[in-house]
Design brief:
By secondary structure, the protein is α/β, with parallel strands linked by helices. The chain is about 20% helix and about 25% strand. It has one domain. The protein starts with 14 loop residues before the first helix and ends with a strand. Its main location: cytoplasm.
Amino acid sequence: MRIIDRNCEIPHEGPFCDLMWSDLEEIETWGVSPRGAGWLFGSRVTTEFNHVNNLELVCRAHQLVQEGLKYMFQDKDVATLLLC
């Protein structure tokens, strides 16, 4: 992620697009996103990603959550934050 040029318009495909537009879903692995950009990802791949990258949590903030903070999946691998 450190090598991605974030000082640009988000492209329609590629890693920057995938980071920006991928969404959580109640699935185990991957799925095609109905947005037409990014992917749907589930609990198992999130746990694997965190393990491989020595992370405990992925924080994301581009999805509305009424509670202000919402942990996803049973292992609480991902948190979505409401930023104002």
